[in-house]
Design a protein that fits this description.
Blueprint (H helix, E strand, L loop, with lengths): L2 E2 L6 H7 L4 E2 L1 H5 L6 E6 L5 H12 L6 E6 L11 H7 E2 L1 H4 L4 E6 L15 H14 E7 L1 H11 L4 E15 L13 E11 L2 H5 L4 E7 L3 E7 L4 E4 L9 H11 L25 H17 L12
Parallel strand pairs: 1-2, 1-4, 3-4, 3-6, 4-5, 6-7, 7-12
Antiparallel strand pairs: 8-9, 8-10, 10-11, 11-12
């Protein structure tokens, strides 16, 4: 089944060219089926790119998924046209009376700031508090994972001596976990961050379990034992060239940045990057949607949290 997104969203053309089944709002309206309602709180600066990356993965499912795009009202976006936000996005105030099967909170390039110094932190706190009774399962990505672990469980992020940047090997810590079904024994995930969540800090929280990690990149997947919170510290949604663009951007800004590890053949940025995380990314989102959202969410969404 397809994803339901606004008819004129720029991502539609890209997804159609990749043969991903996208259904118009008008056509979906005439189908007698309750789709999964998924909200995406997009706090990445490159919103159009990020929404396309996430929709590509959410569209790889037999389930019909209705997407609602959100942006923080308390933050002025510098990289996304205001017209795009006004046309395709909603704010929390507009949807706080609704209920959702799932919520995705993206990353943001603010991990070197204290959480409380981020200009939309109070709004994000309101959203995370609201999600306890209005969303069944939330997938937190990168900084969104650090923010969620801090808000819900008091787990602090810690500074890294240098940026974790590249594509790294990961292994499963737990077996027979639904989120990990189909994962290879060793799988690859891109990371792009200046801070981390440590194994020791997460292990102190009885309500959490570490599902996957990397010898080099550290903790990757954490889940609450009730399945209502999934935390992914990497970027399995990234396009083939995202790390390349980030590297070239930072070089142009004359920043102290190393070539992303295990990404370019021979770490040579003049060569085409090797994509080794696409299969994992698709499985992660498919498993979350199927096992943690579709199979667990009550049909009556208003009963969430009761």
């Amino acid at each position: 089944m397809p994803i339901r997104i606004p008819d004129n969203l720029p991502a539609v053309e890209t997804l159609n060219s990749e043969n991903i089944f996208v259904m118009s709002e008008d056509r979906a309206y005439h189908q007698d089926i309750r789709p999964l309602k998924i909200a995406i709180l997009n706090i990445m600066p490159t919103k159009i790119t990020t929404e396309t990356q996430l929709l590509r993965l959410l569209g790889n499912t037999p389930l019909q998924v209705e997407i609602v795009l959100l942006h923080p009202a308390s933050h002025m976006s510098k990289n996304t046209p205001e017209e795009h936000l006004e046309t395709f996005y909603k704010t929390f105030d507009e949807i706080q009376g609704e209920h959702f099967d799932g919520l995705i909170i993206t990353g943001a390039p603010v991990e070197q700031m204290p959480f409380e110094d981020v200009n939309y932190w109070e709004e994000l706190e309101r959203i995370m508090d609201w999600s306890k009774k209005n969303v069944y399962s939330t997938l937190h990505i990168c900084w969104g994972a650090q923010a969620g672990l801090y808000y819900h469980y008091g787990v602090a992020k810690r500074d890294l001596p240098k940026k974790m940047f590249g594509v790294f090997e990961h292994t499963k810590i737990k077996e027979h976990v639904k989120l990990l079904r189909g994962f290879d024994d060793v799988f690859f995930v891109p990371h792009s961050r200046h801070t981390e969540i440590t194994h020791e800090d997460v292990a102190k929280i009885d309500k959490l379990e570490i599902l996957a990690e990397s010898k080099e990149a550290g903790v990757y997947l954490v889940a609450s034992k009730d399945g209502r919170h999934i935390f992914a510290t990497g970027h399995s949604e990234y396009d083939p060239y995202t790390l390349k663009f980030e590297y070239e951007r930072d070089v142009e800004r004359d920043m102290d940045i190393e070539v992303p590890k295990n990404y370019f053949p021979g770490d040579d940025p003049t060569k085409e990057p090797i994509v080794r995380w696409r299969g994992h990314g698709n499985l992660l989102f498919l498993n979350w949607l199927n096992y943690y959202v579709y199979q667990e969410t009550p049909y009556d969404l208003t009963s969430i949290g009761k």
